Amino acid sequence: MWSSLLRDPEVRTGTGVDVCPFCGEYPCDRILGLAKGYVSLLADAERMKAVGVEAWIAEQEERRKTGFAYVDIRCHPYDVPDK
Fold it and tell me: Residue 53 domain-assigned?
């Protein structure tokens, strides 16, 4: 999820952040659009901010070991605004 937005250089330009939850404009319209399809997105972002990126990644790796996959909780339809 986060990585798809962060691969877009237009999204990152000038923000000075590596991950959306740490941006001063968070949650932007693109994230809010994406959150309509991924119900845990905003809560996961709050967790990332609380524990830090490295700890959050470790938690996600443990979560994956239980069989969790974001694709399994995706809701349709949703749109991600271009900007």
Answer: yes
- The predicted model scores a pTM of 0.69
Does residue 80 belong to any structural domain of this protein?
no
Q: Is residue 78 part of a domain?
A: no
What's the number of domains the chain is made of? Answer: 1
What tens digit of pLDDT does each residue of 4-42 get? 544 555 555 566 778 889 888 899 888 898 888 888 889
Are residues 38 and 4 in contact, defined by beta-carbon separation less than 8 angstroms?
Answer: no
